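Hi Prof. W.,

I finally got the Ferredoxin reductase family protein prediction working! I wasn't sure whether to trim anything, so I left the full sequence exactly as given:
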Amino acid sequence: MLVGVVFGGGAVVGVWAAQLADVGRLDALLASCAHLAGLAAGFGMLVLILLTARVPALEHGVGADVLARWHARGGRIVIGLVLAHAGFAWCAYMRNTGTEPIGSVGELLGYPALAAAIVGTGMLVVVGLVSARVVRPRVRHETWRGLHLMTYAGAAAGFVHQPAGPDLAGAPVTAWVWTLAHVQVAVLVLWYRVVVPARSALRHGIRVTSVVDEGPGVVSVTMRGRELDALKAESGQFFRWRFVTERLWRTALPFSLSAPVRDDTLRITVRVVGDHTRRIRRLRPGVRVVATGPFGAMTAHRRTRRKVLLIAGGVGITPMRALFETLPGGPGDLTLVYRARSADDLVLRDELDRIAGERAGTVHYLVGGSRGVGNPLTPANLRRLVPDIAEHDVYLCGSPGMAKATQRALRRAGVPGERVHAEIFAF
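And this is what came out:
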């Protein structure tokens, strides 16, 4: 993926350099900067959309959390490039024509392609603002997702004026390749975000069979469908679930499997923390479910050692519970560390004890605050619980703060970073 981005970025610079003219005049220099920023922004937008197209090869190979962070960081860069392109182009136009700022805007809006690009820029800026770290926590998830969809409209509006630009208009082969790249990404988005989920829903016919309380504010939702083996879902992975009810059908919610797929049955375990999860708690048997996936790379394929340590925090136990049951291993090979604030927060405990007994695995339940003696986030305590921890692969799932602190502690305890497998959705 990174190699492709670097190669594509180099090609963009090459296209710009091939069209570079005399930049001895200020207006020519400004125009040249505008062209480079515009080409880079257009290519960057393609990459951003590809990262969220839900292409299985990327989701499984790179990891959904890594793709999400790349998308967030890249989005800031692309919006900066879009604004730089607009600013340089505006200044170049004023310098070349001698018009004033307000008058030049009126003239530029007279060109339909440029007007579309200006509207698209406005859309992208709005998306960037609501996605900023200081703003996003204050915006309802439904609102954020709805506004985020404007990215597609903004990208389409920007593309309208790109073929007419000096870097593409005079180079028909380059313009054809540029257009083909946009078409290919658009097809991938439509295929994996629309066609595949619809086809899967029709084929598998998944419906809710039960909703069970697992503890204070935690429920398990069991679903049943047809031919679920065809999904090829693995322990450690997640789906994006769309429950077809009046309040939930608009949003696809990401939840990990809390048990292996067996007998055409799927199960997730969810902590009730917001409007959507409260509605999940009120689901009734028979509700239709559209499940898109599986996604995630935290599977048995990442394993490199015979011994495995699973570390879970809170409801992060869900993928760890599935892995604890299915990871190959003999007596003593599997250890699970499960940390929670209180004993009531330890969900699925009976199942974990049963699995440990059947597989001769070890479970450590660590209850209390982060500064307590049972804190798993210190290297000394990790070595006490698992003396040969440096010989283990480690799978980790918990809150972003807990996961990052544990990763640091694991490195200090002697576990190489490449043997710590985690998906952290924070960016």
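The chain has three domains: 2-198, 205-295, 302-422. Does that look reasonable to you?

Thanks,
D.
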